[in-house]
Amino acid sequence: MITYQLRFPAGEDLGTVLDRTCREVGRALQDAGIAWGTQGPGLEEFLKQVFDRHLVAYDTCDTSLICDETSTPTEWNPDPDPSLLTYQPKTRARVRRCHFRVPQKDIDAFGQETAEAILAAAGRGDLKADSRAGRALVEAWKKGLGPVLFLSYCRETEAHSGAREVDPWKAVRAGGRA
């Protein structure tokens, strides 16, 4: 299991990232000539379910500098927003964050498996992640999730021992902590 942090700039939260990812995935499907079916959940609900399987937040998230010191931008986030890199001492503002855990070997493997799941749910299980449509879906995930994605080791530190899980959708609301 690899743990990433999702760090949210002012005015963004999980809903913003979900909306951006949904737009990008929808565009990739449309460009590939694939219609999202009417069977099962809508695309946004499907993607929210993907997010929910991987999201976790703790009551100690955002309370220690260790959260900054043990995290680095990922290859999906090559040019991170400077406001997300560390504690901002001039404003005393902390970056809101939650964790995104993937069982795959890395975020690229997550992107590929998720692309194949989307293709299967859209009725195109014959297409794989290395198809044109699959590669476009991986890129859509990178555009949706990448700007807030950081590799994280903070959960493994003493500072977070005894932490309780909290609802990540409430913990990182755009207006502040839950």
Determine the mean pLDDT. Answer: 85
User: Cα-atom Rg, whole angstroms?
Assistant: 17 Å
Overall tally of domains: 1
Can you list the strand order of the major beta sheet? 3-5-1-4-2-6
Strand content: 15-25%
Low-confidence stretches: none
What string, H for helix and E for strand, traces the elements in order?
A: EHHEHEEHHEEH
Portion in helices? 25-40%
Distance between the termini: 27 Å
Report the strand count.
6
Shape: elongated
Q: What would you call the structural class?
A: alpha+beta
> Largest beta sheet, briefly?
6 strands, antiparallel
The number of helices is: 6
Task: Describe the protein's architecture and organization.
With 178 residues, the chain is of the alpha+beta class. The protein has one domain. The protein is 38% helix and 15% strand. It contains 6 helices and 6 strands. Helix 1 (14-31) packs across helix 2, helix 1 (14-31) runs antiparallel to helix 5 (132-145) and helix 4 crosses helix 5 (132-145). The model has no long low-confidence stretch (mean pLDDT 85).
